[in-house]
Design goal:
- Pfam families: Metallophos (PF00149).
- Its EC number is 3.1.-.-.
- With 327 residues, the protein is an alpha/beta fold.
- It has a single domain, classed as Metallo-dependent phosphatases (Purple Acid Phosphatase, chain A, domain 2), CATH 3.60.21.
- Helices cover 27% and strands 20% of the residues.
- The protein contains nine helices and 13 strands.
- The strands form two sheets. The protein has a seven-stranded mixed β-sheet with strand order 4-3-2-11-12-1-13. Strands 5-6-7-8-10-9 form a six-stranded mixed β-sheet.
- α2 runs parallel beside α3, α5 packs parallel to α6 and α7 crosses α8.
- 50% of the residues are buried.
Length: 327
Amino acid sequence: MTPDTTFTHDRDRLLARFGAPATEEDVTLAVVSDVHVSPSETGTWKLFHRTESRLATAVADANRLGVDGVVLSGDLTKDGAPEEFEAVDALLSDLSAPAVAVPGNHDVPKSFDPHDTPALADFVDSYTPGSLPFRADLGGVDVVGLNSAAAPDGSLADGHAGHVSEDQLAWLAESVDPDRPTVAVFHHPAFAVHERVPSFSTADHLRVGNADAVAGALADAGVDLAVSGHVHWPAVARRAGVPHLTAPAACSFPQSYLLVRLTPEGATVTMVPLTDPEGADEALAHAERDGARDGTLAANLDHGYFESFPLADVASPSASPSAVADD
């Protein structure tokens, strides 16, 4: 798959700045979420016919920028079919930087899927350092990966809700080194986007089921920044003192990924488009036709959501205060 051209230099948007994590040397991580790769499906608000080219563009951009690592925050595939994972693997094989991923709800076996989704163990073997949860060193930054999409007892197999197990939260308490810069990644966010974007859906599955416990465990462990996906929309919150980001979707409007640049002064997060203006217009048209969740997101473009960027800025505490206040 040939990537679309890359657009970083003139079209990335400052999303947020935080005081932490801070690093001794400059480190850049690319966060790519909700690609929903399908080698055969077309249409819908997820623009399945563009998913391979969007991931190819993200890979090409990461290579061009020389990032220190790539973090995929779940929903790599449309619905976890073997051929979808094969397409993802082929695209990621061109990546120069080390990469880690956590599973999304579309990457794990579901009771209603008409195909045999590979077991979670296969996902772990392919996209983690060998375990889940995991801690991976990317450029001197500890990236901690948690599983919010699947449970050993199968309790998450009948829908798209998320939960982080007590065992993982206990592991977090023992495994995070509070003296090292640490970014946690998991698919379902630990805050409700509708509290930041009132028109957004209030559906329970759009936030991890035990959000308060997860937010508290991250804070207690000394995690500096938490990153999630799932909602297909960029948003920022602060929970128990820890900044939380949700990444935009690579597949659907606004078809972007995040660059997280870490320096001795803290973290700067920018949103980078994966398509040109014509491709963005196509995604917006599909979103508006959908009329459901993505239609709501598209409507926020007219309401000036992107004009409120940055959503959080340590250099300007008055910027978008409702976006950074603790829940």
